[in-house]
């Protein structure tokens, strides 16, 4: 499974088990009329959560534990500017570090 940011306010989840015939299986949609640009996408260790660092100063967590039924689990603002990076790590993938303009928050 891979994910790709889209210009339609969300992230498309793809099944790439057959590399010759990737197929979309679900989408995490972002509510609202504006599509924030995703700067970075990161899965947690077990692949059940997807974090997105976006240009609109928000971090969005999508649940992708069931790829056919992904959903936006949480959205929160971390900085007053674009979020450049998000990394999920630590024991059981329970920690996330974000960065904006060279400043990290975790």
Task: Tell me what you see in this structure.
The chain is mainly β and 106 residues long. Helix content is 0%, strand content 54%. The protein has no helices and ten strands. β5 (49-54) and β6 form a beta hairpin. The mean pLDDT is 81.
Brief account:
With 106 residues, the chain is mostly beta strands. The protein has strands spanning 2-6, 10-15, 23-29, 38-43, 49-54, 58-63, 71-77, 85-89, 95-100, 103-105.
What is the overall shape? globular
How many helix segments?
0
Biggest sheet details: 4 strands, antiparallel
* SSE string: EEEEEEEEEE
Helix content: under 10%
CATH class: Mainly Beta
Mean pLDDT across all residues, rounded?
81
Radius of gyration, in angstroms, nearest whole number: 14 Å
State the low-pLDDT regions, or none: none
Give the SSE map.
Layout: E1 2-6, E2 10-15, E3 23-29, E4 38-43, E5 49-54, E6 58-63, E7 71-77, E8 85-89, E9 95-100, E10 103-105
Antiparallel strand pairs: 1-2, 2-3, 4-5, 5-6, 6-7, 8-9, 9-10
